[in-house]
Design a protein that fits this description.
The protein has about 1000 residues and is mainly α. About 55% of the residues lie in helices and about 5% in strands. It has 39 helices and 12 strands. The strands form 5 sheets. It has a 4-stranded antiparallel beta sheet with strand order 2-5-1-6. A two-stranded antiparallel sheet has the order 3-4. Strand 9, helix 39 and strand 10 form a beta-alpha-beta unit. The two termini are about 55 Å apart. The N terminus is likely disordered.
Amino acid sequence: MAWVSETIPFLKRRLEIPNQDDDGRIGAGRNGSTSTGTLSTLNADKSASLEGLGSTFVPVIILTVICVLIFLVNRPKQRRVYAPRTIEVLQKPERTSPQLPGGWVNWIKPFFAIDHTYILNNCSLDGFFFLRFLRVLAIICLVGCCLVWPIILPIHGTGRIGLKQLDQLTIGNIKFGIRYYAHVAVAWCFFGFVLFMISRECIYYINLRQAYLLSPNYSKRLSSRTVLFTCIPRPYLDEQTLRKLFGDSVKNIWLLRNTNYLRGLVEDREEAALRLEQAEIQLIRKANAARARALKRNPPPPPAPGLTTKSCTSSSTSPDEPALDVAAQEAEKAKSDGELRVTEQHVDGPRSEASVDLEYEHPYGFDPSLPDVRGSVAAMWIPAKARPHHRPIRNFGRRVDTIRWTRARLKALNRDIWKLRKKHRGGDGTPLDAAFIEFDSQTSAQVAFQTLAHHQPLHMSPRYIGIRPEEVIWSSLRIKWWERIMRRFLMFGAIATGIVFWSIPSAFIGTLSNIDQLTELLPFLGFINHLPGAILGVIKGFLPALALTWLMAIVPKILRGCARVAGVPSHAHVELFVQNAYFAFQVVQVFLVTTLVRAASDSLEQIIQSPLSIKDLLSANLPTASNFYLSYILIQCLGAGALDLLNVVDLWKHTVVTKFATDPRKQFRRWDRLKRVHWGSVYPRFTNLAVIALSYSCIAPLILLFAGLGMCFVYVVYRYNLIYVYESDLDTQGLFYPTALMQLMWGLYIAEICMIGLFALKDGFGPLLLMVLFLVFSVLVHISLSEAVAPLLYNLPRTLAREKDVGPITSTESVEQDLTAPRPEESGGLAAAYYDEDEHFGDEPEPPPLSELDTDIQMRGIEGSSSLKYMILDWSKDMFKSKLRSDVADSGLTRVLTRVKIFLTPDPTKKQSFIMRWFHPEIYQDFRSLQPIVNPGPDDVELPEDYVRKAYWPPEMWQPPPRLWIPKDEARVSRQEVAHTKDSVFISDQGCWLRDKGRVTCDFENSPLKEPRILY
């Protein structure tokens, strides 16, 4: 740490600019300065921004380096942790990610060589757009550095207020209001660039989303052809009525019913099966532990010729050994008399011809066809009272043998569940106000989704399309329309209340970053000032930012619960709900409250002494609050990004916890489930960082560099994790992206309002008026962009479906098609009923034919025709236009306007430069140009034949009985338990072995718990 203490004073000297205003004695009475010059100078002497930033930067850099080194060392060794998407068993039926070289550094070039189209087609649309969002933020911040720094930083550095260190580079160091015109000019340029980027990315998102949804693989999926209707009135909860309402394009209808009692039975069966599995494992471990102790005390004699060690057990009956039951004693006697001759695989003598379980071997070595009714293998080593037991409430708390009781319980539950499911499939049960309707094509589903289905408000709406069965929150589908309104208002009120009260701990954290003023107000904390400089710097810079990060990490879980209560129907829509609410939390708590509290705490003592100076004090101290966010960005981008790259939780589970595991099911779940990204809590964190950077871009421009480089590092981390680590099942078709882009507008609003406020505090009325004008312009752009984009976020245009089938339609083709197009009644469609030519609405009567008129009357119209003036007028217009064209064609203005026209409306058939393509995504990145590169995998995925009985029914209507997995042991207890339990529930001991000290080893790739994944 010695180099840090030497570097900080050096940076101080480099940032200090000789200035006469540094002298506090003349700060208040020269060159028309205000009376606050002395106060500002005294406050500047207390600046410790470099110490706070260094105290955060050093530990974060150390943490980042350690995490990256551990990642580089373990990446080739821990494939399940750092490259699970390359394991074929975990990815089926999706494509596996490409393998990377196993060295420390040689994998970097192949990794960055992976094309963006691979991420688009294999890592979900949400993942692709999140990476693009990080790139856009990095571009905005780095371009902002190029635009803002050359002009604003020199103006701040020579502002003549006399602030020190990093505070010297903020707008608070400017003394004369005339310099604010430079801020206005830079803000107009930079904020205009941000508005263009938001508009451009919205256009690109719409085009790519349409190409993605209309791609061959995606359009064939069941979810893209199925619409969820909620709040359906009771008269329409009938399959025949719904088929008449939506026409012949309806393929299947799932009318949901109240299955609460059935769900309770299924949950009871799950609980009983898991209890049975745990009891079987406990019995196996106890029996083998007792056997190991017995064999250790009385080692078995060497096996006789023809016998193996596995077929022999000790016949000692010492009192120290567990008591043997009668069956075991008979088996020992038979073995001692020579009646039993066992080999490791089979017994001597003929076998029964009856069908037997090839996996099962008789516990006593007899022919597998013989029943082992003479007792339990485990009873040879443990007494009956040591068997697993419990006291169920259904049995009035009396003790029962867990294994026997759960076997009988499972048989009864299986019968009850089968009967109840049969009744529900027959139409029994109270119907719910929701239905899933599958159509024969994606186009028909979109037509039904975009059609107003019911004449009353809030009936048969809201509608949802693209929801997968595994994403449905079934408890939300029973909610009626009036209950949905009440729940949403209740949750919005709860969230607003939470935002208000969450300000208390956020404000407290904001005061911690200004420990000097806090110790002056609270003298008993004065000992903090006597701590070593390094520790004091950590308390000021690192701890507040870390505490704020931990505080905000609690919020998403609470918001997900609020979304469920509000009646959100799917997990994907829950994340969208969380994104909006969590962003409000982030902006208010992390930014506004912390900024204002820190700025006020800097000047609290001076405000108390001189209340009239609050205007000047806030204008000087508000910009310096940005120093806290430099530390916050370091922790969020470098610290959190390095931990995400290390994947420390999975590394701990798969390297340490697995070695001491005793439950095969928990091990398999840990191995089989990839890490899922909750985009609803990820997007707002980085959107808020962008809002902070935009808000301080012209006030404290140094933050742009930290934010831009931080986004670049996070981009690399998430790019690796999305390709090799994260699961990509949850998909909202990229709806997080436009929401995040629109939320960036709040960064512009806050920046503009802050600049207007600072100009007002400094009496800069000219710059203030210009910023007010740009604020109005920003609002108009926001409103126009929202109106243009909103209809295209959830709907697919009908024109794209036609272009997908027949290709782009030219103007000539459209005219020819109009002449030969069939009449509306000839082509049945949803609007065919609106055309009825027999009624002749709005038609005029046909005039008589010309043959019936007199020839003289027909020719008399030439004489004195009234159209002569129109002929002369058209001729004069043409002459004037031709003369004007010839004169203008040779002028320089025409050439300039022609270039402007070409730039604004380029020819799509001509090859253009990168800049032209970048400025016109609506032309060069439209649906037709993006469609060839978009086709999300996997290819040729077919639905199972019985998908109608499973897809959009609640899990309790089709979920099979649980599959149990127990370890195979040397005492062969598992083999007998498998034979006895298989009549109640599926159970297997294949692929799992009991090791020493009761631990287990599993072959997860061949686990019986593995279930095939179906892509709906």
